[in-house]
Write a structure and sequence with these properties.
With 90 residues, this protein is an alpha+beta fold. It has helices spanning 16-27, 47-52, 70-82; strands at residues 2-7, 32-37, 40-43, 60-66. It has one domain: HPr-like (Histidine-containing Protein, Chain: A). The chain is 34% helix and 26% strand. The protein has a 4-stranded antiparallel β-sheet, with helices on one face. Strand 2 and strand 3 form a beta hairpin. It is globular, with a radius of gyration of 12 Å. The termini are far apart.
Length: 90
């Protein structure tokens, strides 16, 4: 299992569209993927679970990935967050 804290750097936080993008990545994964925010742990393969966390801009989330493709999944999640969910042009 690998665990990593990732900053939420986009202006709007994790609303419906970014939550859907997270689930697009995690639902294809063979690994189990959990997301932790403000002490609450949720299944990152469920859009409702991700959205209920109400993740705000400027915060950090922790992803816990456990399984055979854990490194690839974590890398994809990191890239998604760093790209600000493709919402903002530099």
């Amino acid at each position: 299992m690998i665990s990593k804290s990732i900053p939420v750097v986009n202006k709007l936080g994790v609303h419906a569209r970014p939550a859907g993008m997270i689930v697009d990545i995690t639902s294809k994964a063979k690994s189990d993927v959990m997301i932790v925010y403000n002490g609450t742990r949720a299944n990152a393969k469920s859009i409702l679970n991700v959205m209920m966390l109400a993740i705000t801009p400027g915060s950090n989330v922790v992803f816990e990935v456990d399984g055979e493709d854990e490194c690839e999944v974590m890398q994809q999640l990191e890239q998604l967050f760093l790209a600000k969910f493709d919402e903002e042009q530099e």
